[in-house]
Amino acid sequence: MKLLIANGHLIDPAANENTGMSVLIEDGLVTAWVKPGEDAPEDCEIFDAAGLLVAPGFVDMHVHLREPGHEHKETIASGCAAAVAGGWTSVCPMPNTSPVNDNAAITRYMIEQARIAGFANVFPIGAITKSSDGSELAEMGEMKAAGAVAVSDDGRPVPNAGIMRRAMQYARDFDLPVIDHCEDKSLSTGGVMHEGRMSLLLGLKGMPALAEDVDVVRDILLAQETGAKVHIAHVSTKGAVEAVRRAKNEGINVTCEVTPHHFTLTDSVVEGYDTNTKMAPPLRSKEHREAILEGLRDGTIDAIATDHAPHHADEKALEYDRAPFGITGLETAVGLAFDELIQKGIVDLARLVALCSTNPARILGLTGRGTLAPGSIADVTIIDPNLTWEYRNAESRSKSRNSPFDGWTFHGAPVATIVGGRLVYRRSLEN
Amino acid sequence: MTKPFRRRDLLGIRNLSPAEINGILDTAETFTEISNREVKKVPALRGKTVINLFFEASTRTRTSFELAAKRLSADAVNISVSSSSVSKGETLLDTALNLDAMAPDCIVVRHSSAGVPHQLAKVSRAAIVNAGDGANEHPTQALLDAMTIREHKKEFDGLEVAIVGDILHSRVARSNIHLLTKLGAKVRVAGPGTLVPKEFQQFVSANLAVCSNVEDAIREADVVMILRIQRERQDSAYFPTLREYSIHYGLTNQRLNLAKKDAIVLHPGPMNRGIEIASNVADSSRSLILDQVKYGVAVRMAVLYLATGGKALNQ
């Protein structure tokens, strides 16, 4: 079966293409580009993308799908349904499931559940240490063979520099990126928001920016020494952005991502004690957000990732101190990126596609993805850059509702998502 | 002329205007004499229900709120939730909704987590009064401190107030800083650097100074407010020992002599005698600690009266 995504505006930074171009898909692969005015091939279904942006499928390299173990928050099926509605064709679930994804059996289970669900591709991230408890290395080679694309202990970052050094030395042999949630917990324990004027005003215990900075600097030194691929998850501080910028200038193999909530919000929204403003790393103050925007502008930041972290409503209906960290993010990322980055001139469309697709696919080594060049896998994100829409938690495809963006109006929306040549999401006209 | 206390809820001092603060103080003033009567009861809140919902242990604040409600003829119910619903796994929201369904007019809430009164106020029909939330605010404490200060100093404008101790973890300090600076007093805070972060300089827009030692804060002060120091802070490495704390930060007669001759001493209680305050200072005529407790009842009567629909004086 042939499908022609016709008359759209193709943005493919990997192929250096940013123009009107139709994309022909056959048997799950991109087989040709058709110039405007040229005839469509015969026996071909047409997807009319006039007025729409056509991009290589977006890759969210940082999500939590909660399965196995926490299916009341999210399942791989519900998370992948939310992903494709948000324009993501591939998602990378962190290993903090129950049990922890620290072995090939769990990795294979996740991929199989995603295949059955049939929405987005799932590329699991394996644990760095067994049970993510920071002591013994997990079987990275086995997990890679099963389909894992990186390793991370995410929310339980490896505190011991010696173990982290060995993890990097070992991961390098398998060409596995080591993703680190940089937080020195000796500096942040007990904190529930960014430490600064707002935390003093609200009487909440702060997590200093320093807790992130010292761990980023440690990881950069370890990356330099081991030569491993190191990726800093969700940078949120000025110090972290500056450290990564310096490291890149020195040629150290380090990359980083940012979340939509960190480039959009500051800690001022914690006023009111809405637990949907609580996540780790926390929303920072204005100067940190400005540093993030500068990092996006100058290329220091490589990727946008959501850190989609669903929690059940009952778990969030608690005291601010006791509520769990994390918010959902899969369905609001593109809207936020258009309003906060494109409309405000922080990045252009080509750079946005690089941040959401080209770069994460390259960092994770996803062969045949992150581009729509002929021969590549037909994962396609189609966006209407002019659509005005409202996000409502009640209508989310996620099982959870913990987004601070409920009721926000956005300009720019994912309208169709194609995974492996199959149309898995089409925005209906009524919403 | 004072303006009406517009809000039903009293969540903190931070969002009150000076006029609203004065309105509460003036109303409290009229209630003070009720506690001196032979029959200490007026019918102002007859038929109203007040729930004292205390998630954290408290003797004086809870008793003070209970007496305030009863002296206004309200029906007062005390609930200590320190363990019950939390151990049963009930969410904060459910606890609030269940109590609210019993149609109280006012819920007085104390909790060890900041923001709980604000969270309850979003879902409850009853007026919420904050009786202390974590390290955030303790508005009735600041109001009763203000009553005490006003009784002795008349004017807040230009008054110099030193607040000494664990500012970081203190809801009393936060509410007092808001109230005093809003009314024009100049506040100086001091204590160990671990407990008085330099960021406090930006806490409010004006009239606040962070001092690097206790002496600088106390010098020429009209009011010296001493905060309780918690032993747990020693365990968390905020200072080495209580002994060293008392030597460097405790209020002794010698330190108090740096203040103005007619300076008054306040402490929100309960006191650690010999640690943050020397016993002879606590018992001296300059110490107004028991006056604070006395005014506490009048302030809480005023707050309950206004929160349940009463009109502020001069409205």
Distance between the termini of chain B: 8 Å
Q: What is the beta-strand fraction of chain B? A: 5-15%
Q: So what's the overall shape of chain A?
A: globular
> What is the end-to-end distance of chain A?
30 Å
What's the structural domain tally of chain B?
A: 2
**In this structure, how is the largest beta sheet of chain B organized?**
5 strands, parallel
Give the largest interface. A-B, 17 and 26 residues
Pairing-aware structural class of the strands and helices of chain A? alpha/beta
What does this structure look like?
The complex is a heterodimer of chains A (431) and B (315). Chain A folds into two domains: 2-54 and 376-426, Roll (Urease, subunit C, domain 1), CATH 2.30.40.10; 57-364, Alpha-Beta Barrel (TIM Barrel). Chain A is built from 13 helices and 21 strands. Chain A has helices at 76-85, 104-117, 140-146, 161-173, 185-188, 197-202, 209-226, 238-249, 260-264, 286-298, 313-316, 333-342, 349-364; strands spanning 2-6, 9-12, 17-20, 22-26, 29-34, 44-48, 53-56, 58-63, 88-93, 121-122, 125-126, 150-152, 178-180, 193-194, 206-207, 230-232, 254-258, 303-304, 380-390, 409-419, 422-426. Chain A has a six-stranded mixed sheet with strand order 3-2-7-19-20-21, with helices on one face. In chain A, strands 11-12-13-16-17-18 form a six-stranded parallel sheet. In chain A, strands 5-4-1-6 form a four-stranded mixed sheet, with no helix packed on it. Chain B is globular and about 55 Å long. Chain B has two domains: 18-134 and 294-307, Aspartate/ornithine carbamoyltransferase (Rossmann fold, 3-Layer(aba) Sandwich); 139-292, Aspartate/ornithine carbamoyltransferase (Rossmann fold, 3-Layer(aba) Sandwich), CATH 3.40.50. Chain B has helices at residues 18-31, 60-71, 84-87, 92-100, 116-123, 139-153, 171-182, 214-218, 231-235, 242-249, 253-256, 279-282, 289-307, and strands at 49-54, 75-80, 106-111, 127-133, 160-164, 186-190, 208-210, 223-226, 264-266. Chain B contains 13 helices and nine strands. A five-stranded parallel sheet of chain B has the order 7-6-5-8-9. Chain B has a four-stranded parallel sheet with strand order 2-1-3-4, sandwiched between helices. At the A-B interface, helix 6 of A face helix 4 and helix 5 of B.
